[in-house]
Design a protein that fits this description.
Strands 1, 2, 3, 4, 5, 6 and 7 form a seven-stranded antiparallel beta sheet that branches. The protein has helices spanning 31-49, 141-154, 159-162, 184-194, and strands spanning 58-60, 70-74, 85-107, 110-128, 134-140, 170-173, 179-181. The chain has four helices and seven strands; from the N terminus they run αβββββααββα. The chain has one domain (17-194): Peptide Deformylase. It is an alpha+beta fold. β4 and β5 (134-140) form a beta hairpin. The chain binds zinc ion. Residues 107-109, 149, 153 line the site of zinc ion.
Length: 195
């Protein structure tokens, strides 16, 4: 359920085609970008407050229908009470490292669908911060996965697109909070929404 508390920038979900458009690089982060970031934070937390079993760990601007390369990532994945985010402007992966690991991913823009998505276990990231300063970091494990997922969003790619040819990689979130595999009927129904 979405309360519509934040009417300015509403979360968009598949099958909305805007999600598959490329976002543009930000030239200079100004007040407009600060406003965009607070809208993104509000949208993510609002979504989380209306979902019983999920945590809003990150969001890309395209998910509120703003096609700019801006990503926010939750500062503490393990503590839901920490509602602060780190901001990455024009994020890109400068190096893929480690090994490829398959693990569960969900997305605010893909309702109730989870997938086992192959991702690199370590990536080097280049971005700008909100003060237009260069940021460089190495992300590992779940954070590396989150960066790959969000940077894909800025290029119009969703996690379901990465596993399109692997029907067994798709799962759904039940009302009970359990993630379960799909039967053929559920899979056909979900696939008709995704593509
Ligand atoms: Zn997502």
């Amino acid at each position: 359920m979405y309360t519509g508390k934040n009417m300015m920038n509403k979360l968009i979900t598949l099958p909305n085609k805007e999600l598959r458009k490329n976002s543009k690089r930000v030239g200079y982060a100004d007040k407009k970008i600060s406003k965009l970031i607070s809208d993104m934070e509000e949208t993510t937390l609002d979504w989380e407050d209306n979902r019983e079993h999920e945590v809003g760990v990150a969001l890309a601007a395209v998910q509120i229908n703003v096609h700019k390369k801006v990503v926010i990532i939750r500062r503490d994945f393990d503590n839901k009470n920490n509602r602060s985010f780190d901001v990455y402007i024009n994020p890109e992966i400068s190096s893929y490292e480690g090994e490829i690991v398959k693990d569960f991913e969900g997305c605010l823009s893909v309702k109730d669908v989870y997938g086992k998505v192959p991702r690199y276990s370590r990536v080097k990231i280049k971005a700008k911060d909100i003060n237009n300063k260069d940021v460089k970091l190495t992300a590992e494990g779940f954070l590396a996965r989150v960066f790959q997922h969000e940077i894909d969003h800025t290029n119009g790619v969703l996690f379901v697109d990465k596993i399109k040819d692997d029907p067994d990689a798709f799962f759904t979130l039940k009302d009970s909070g359990k993630i379960e595999g799909l039967n053929d009927v559920e899979r056909d129904k979900i696939f008709s929404i995704l593509w």
